[in-house]
Amino acid sequence: MTQTILHIDASARRTGSATRDLSERVVRHLNAGRIIRRDLASPLPLITEDWIAANFTPADQRDVVQQDVLSLSDELVSELQKADTIVIGLPIYNFSVPAAFKAWIDLVARAGLTFAYSEEGPKGLLDGKRAILAVASGGTAVGSEIDFATTYARHVLGFIGIHDVEVIAADRMALDPETTLSNAQKAVTELAA
Ligand SMILES: Cc1cc2nc3c(=O)[nH]c(=O)nc-3n(C[C@H](O)[C@H](O)[C@H](O)COP(=O)(O)O)c2cc1C
After folding, report:
1. How confident is the model at residue 70, as a pLDDT?
2. Atom of ligand 1 at shortest range from CA of 139
3. Residue 174 CB–ligand 1 contact under 6 Å
4. What is the mean pLDDT of each run of 10 residues along the chain (193 residues)?
5. Binding residue per annotation — 11?
6. Cβ–Cβ < 8 Å for 184, 170
7. Helix (H/G/I), strand (E/B), else coil: 25
8. What was the pLDDT predicted at 1?
9. CA torsion sign, 178 to 181 to 186 to 189?
10. Count of Cβ atoms closer than 10 Å to residue 149 Cβ
11. Residue 127 Ramachandran class (φ > 0 left, ψ -120 to 50 alpha, else beta)
12. Where in the sequence is the domain holding 96, given as residue range(s)?
């Protein structure tokens, strides 16, 4: 069956971006039949009071204005639902994820669509998907206690049901960029297709 990749980039830099270079390498390595592109350097809107009210109105009771308010969020959820693999270029900004990525999360974490409340607590609804994070940082070590980016991304992807999350890290680039980049590029070639 044809594999579909959702390729997301969260770096604000369109040139000279390590995470864009790595995410592109991952996508090429996986060689999927179909690629859906979502570049967060073209920023998504933040959620608003109207958006929240529309989201918490049952789908069959939303008026046309509320349906319209949710249409971009519906489209982003649909991109996720169609994807077998989600590849995310994710720089560390101020010890966490870029605000552009958080805006995407706020638009795709939708009760009834990507997670559901149950007696045992919330349950992710996006089953059977894989995510690959292509991360870069200047000085923060990925996996360290001040890396709130990969820990957060892993947690929130798990929350919507994506538990298979791999991290390709070009971290601490300020120290030895050549070595960290070449290690990350090698890790891409070792990813299971
Ligand atoms: C706004 C901003 C905040 C940053 N904050 C951090 C940080 O907290 N820790 C860190 O190690 N690097 C930080 N960096 C460095 C980036 O993570 C690093 O330059 C990375 O390569 C950016 O990804 P990109 O090359 O794909 O643009 C920051 C960079 C920017 C632009």
Report:
1. 98
2. 11
3. no
4. 93 98 98 97 97 97 98 98 98 98 98 95 96 98 98 98 98 96 98 92
5. yes
6. yes
7. helix
8. 66
9. negative
10. 27
11. beta
12. 4-189
Residue from 80, 45, 54, 48 nearest 159 by CA: 80
Record the pTM: 0.97
Calculate how far, in angstroms, residue 91's C-alpha sits from the geometric centre of ligand 1.
6
In this structure, the residue with its CA closest to atom 31 of ligand 1 is 93
pLDDT for residue 175:
96
Which CATH number goes with the domain that contains 150?
Answer: 3.40.50.360
Atom of ligand 1 nearest to the CA of 16: 25
- d(CA 138, ligand 1 centre) in Å: 6
Q: Give me the pLDDT at residue 2, please.
A: 82
CA of 186 to the centre of ligand 1 (A): 21
Cα 95 to averaged position of ligand 1 atoms, centre (Å): 8
For residue 105, how far is the Cα from the chain centroid? Answer: 7
62 alpha carbon – ligand 1 mean position (Å) = 40
Cα separation, 39 vs 78, whole angstroms: 16
- Tell me which of 94, 148, 172 to substitute to probe ligand 1's pocket, judged by most ligand atoms within 8 Å of the beta carbon: 94
Residue 4 pairs with which residues in a beta bridge? Answer: 34
Which pLDDT does position 26 carry in this prediction? 98
pLDDT attached to residue 180: 97
- Give yes or no for a contact between 125 and 74, defined as CB atoms under 8 angstroms apart: no
Number of domains in the chain: 1
